[in-house]
Amino acid sequence: MTRKPTLPFDPFALAQAAGATALGLASRPQDLLQVQMEAARQWGDFWTDALTGKAGEAPRDRRFMAAEWQDDPYYRSVRDAYLLASKQLRELVSLGDGDDNAKATARFLLDQYLNAVSPANFAHTNPDVVKRTKETNGANLVQGFANFLEDVTSGKGIVQRRSDPKAFEKGKTIAATPGEVVFQNDLFQLIQYTPTTDKVAAEPLLYVPPLVNRYYMIDLAPNQSFVKWLVEQGRTVFVISWVNPGPELKDKGVGDYVTEGVVTAIEQAAKRTRQKPDLFSFCLGGTLVAIALAWLAAKGRADEVNSATLIGSLVDFSDMRDWSAFVHEGHLSALEDHLEAQGYIDSLELQRLFAAMRANDLIWSSVINHYLLDKEAPPSDLLYWFEDGARIPAAFLKSYNRDLLKDNKLKDPAGFTVGDVAIDLAKITTPMMVIALKDDHVSAWEAVYRGARDLGADFVLGGSGHNAGVINPPSRNKHGYWTAKAMPESAGDWLAGATKNEGSWWPLWTKWLDGKGSGKQVAARKITDGIEPAPGTYATMD
Question: Whole-structure pTM over 0.85, yes or no?
Answer without folding.
Answer: yes
